[in-house]
Amino acid sequence: TTQSKLYKPIFSQPVDSLLKPMMHNSDNFFAEQVLLMAGNELYGYMGDDVIDSLLAKDLDAVPQKPRWVDGSGLSRYNLFTPNDFVFILSKLKDEFGIERLKNILPASNEGTLKNYFTEIPGRIFAKTGTLGNISCLSGYIITTQGKLLIFSFLANGYQTGAKIGR
């Protein structure tokens, strides 16, 4: 088309420079915009068709079929189980490698894990998720024996603030 001849994307930054701040700051608006940009790249317009595409292809084998409506993480209509997150984290580890993921996700005492897990520096890399009366933590932990474990916790139905640890 004429427009495609006029405009050509310039990829000047590695994708991890976009992912790391999003994971460390838990910026839900930014996450929604990234999802829309991915849709624009795939389909030529900013829509949520990318969700259906990811569920049908990349995430077709998740243990429990999730309900995914937006990229912000703020919607009560997004329904993923901890088992789904373990599946996704395992897939990410296999596709990207743990060293890359260690760089993207907050570690102990970083980002959304600031002041938490300080007693195990360099051994936990995880993402928090909170919504009214729901708190989640999913990621990777390295045992004292050096074994990598993938975990996901979801706690709901309580009426106190989301506090990790003691």
Estimated radius of gyration: 17 Å
Order of helices and strands: HHHHHHEEE
User: How much helicity do the residues have?
Assistant: 25-40%
Structural class: alpha+beta
List the total number of helices.
6
- pLDDT averaged residue by residue: 87
Bulk shape: globular
Spans of at least 5 consecutive residues whose pLDDT stays below 50 are none
Which strands sit side by side, in order, in the main sheet? 1-2-3
Secondary structure layout plus pairing:
Blueprint lengths: L1 H5 L9 H10 L2 H16 L5 H8 L25 H15 L1 H7 L19 E8 L2 E9 L5 E9 L10
Antiparallel strand pairs: 1-2, 2-3
Helix pairs in contact: 5-6
Question: What would the keywords be for this entry?
Answer:
single chain; 166 residues; alpha+beta; three-stranded antiparallel β-sheet; 37% helix
